[in-house]
Amino acid sequence: MPTDLSTIPYLPSFANGMGNTNPVGKTDSKDRQLLMRMMGHKHMIETIERFEWKNLPPELTTDLIERILYFRYKGAFFKHNERHYFLPFALKGEIDSYGRYIGITPVLFTGQWKVSDGKITEDISFISGKTFKVCYDLESAEDELDEVDRLEFDDKAVILTDSSLEISQDFTPMNYLIRPIVEQLVDILVLVNIDLISSAKMFYVVAKDPEQKEAIEKEFRDLDNRILNGKRVVVLTSPTDLKELMGSSVKDTARYFQSYQSIENLRKDIIGIDNGGTFMKQEHTTEMETEANTSGGSYVLNNALRMRKEFCDIVNKTFGLTIDVDVKGGEKDASIVPEGAQTKDRTNEGGEE
Questions:
Q1: Is residue 340 in a domain?
Q2: How many other β-carbons are positioned within 10 Å of the β-carbon of residue 210?
Q3: Residue 289 sits in which domain range?
Q4: Beta strands in 174-215 (DSSP E)
Q5: Cβ(200)–Cβ(35) under 8 Å?
Q6: To the nearest whole number, what is the mean pLDDT of the chain?
């Protein structure tokens, strides 16, 4: 965990002190990069779609708030020139006895920082020279800035974090935190592809010279093309004696997908959405076992919801708004399969299986 109070995101080249590492030695294949992006994007969508914000000012949307929390972990709500903003921030001034920020300055969400001698030094402020006093409770939200405060602060702001903080005011954003899980999911997909290829039947033909080899390969390419295009009759001119290559490889695809499902459920459990339970996969399970192993991630989701609810209360008191937030869909979410539904006997429903 970082020890500074910066909002610079967690990038491998800077977070791990490896800015001078040769990037050529650490590149993935194009297909793997696309798989990583695909799985990462899926996780982002499922994370930011957990909540629904209501009665927001017209200049703010659910997507803006949740995306900032996903990529930067925290943001501050404030008002400037009669417009409401929710942006990342940096410490401006001191911290209190709890380690909380007393004053902050908003920074750009687009990720722009001052660079000196090739090193990131500090954030670029969104509003140059502006300092906002942070409200952490309803009492401070009601208090007006006195004359002393006005010499130091320009206005008030309310901080929202994606979940409860640890000791430090900084925490790892979900965008970076989930990368090892996404890596494992992509690894399994690659292994499945290798397993399917290595376990496929292969045949070989003995050719007497390179010219015959080329002619046979051309005819079999034509054969593959005709089969894929629905042609039933194929005439070959080369004498072919097909022999199967017998291998000892046994397909592990089912085991790979069981591991995939377990890790996928762990990923969902990390963000508190319903899943089928982690690392407890069997071919047959009773309804009681399914109910015991199934996890809705309620504590994780409740923590995230509580942080947002408390944020709404302070914002409404500070700025005279009526914003609110709730879990999207609640218990009526049609995408969630009820616990034990996969073991329910359907043979007597409507007289059909």
A1: no
A2: 8
A3: 181-296
A4: 202-204
A5: no
A6: 77
Q: Are residues 256 and 204 in the same domain?
A: yes
Total tally of structural domains belonging to the chain: 2
* Overall average pLDDT of the 130-134 stretch: 90
CB-based contacts of 327: which residues, under 8 Å, 6+ apart?
50, 51, 52, 301, 305
Q: For tokens 């007289």, what's the residue? A: 351
Residue 339 lies in a domain: no
Question: Are 270 and 44 spatial neighbours (Cβ–Cβ below 8 Å)?
Answer: no
Residue type, 146: D
Please tell me what DSSP assigns to residue 84. Answer: E
Strand order in the sheet with 155-161: 83-87, 74-80, 155-161, 132-134, 103-106, 89-91
Q: Which two tokens stand for residue 171?
A: 């925490």
How far is CA 133 from each of CA 93, 226, 254, rounded to the nearest angstrom?
10, 73, 56
> Three-state SS for 126?
coil
For residue 352, give the DSSP letter: B
pTM above 0.90, yes or no: no
Q: What is the C-alpha to C-alpha distance for residues 54 and 325, in angstroms, rounded to an integer?
A: 6
Diameter of the chain measured on Cα atoms? 99
Q: Output DSSP code: residue 321.
A: -
Residue 225 banded pLDDT, cuts 50, 70, 90: confident
Does the residue 259 lie in any domain?
Answer: yes
DSSP 231-293: -------S----EEE-------HHHHHHHHHHHHHHHHHHHT--BS-SS---SS--HHHHHHH
